[in-house]
Amino acid sequence: MLNLIFLLVVGSAMVYLSQNNLMLVPLHLGTYTFSDIPLFYIIIGSIITGLGLAFLIYLFNSIFTAISIHGKDNKIKQGNSDIVSLTKRIHQLELENERLKNNSTVIEPQDNNAL
After folding, report:
1. How many domains does the chain have?
2. Model pTM score
3. Is residue 86 in a domain?
4. Full domain range(s) for residue 94
């Protein structure tokens, strides 16, 4: 519904422009010259060109942002992996420390599923 209202407003603006800007003007693009083009075509064309360029800039910015976020996600995953491996190593050292305190010669089995 909001899109329909937006299209009606934009269409009304284009009708207003087309009724009040019927002058025929020449358009110079570098060495090319286009004569007798209605002014509202030039106005609408410049608006569409500006919106297209803004969309392209937004698209490139979004792509680069997604790439940088992906790199940071990988760093976070690597950090979490390091934390898990260090926690596992701390647990093994605590078990060895307790074994040495008690002068126990019994070697506890390694638990590969432990943290």
Report:
1. 1
2. 0.58
3. yes
4. 18-101
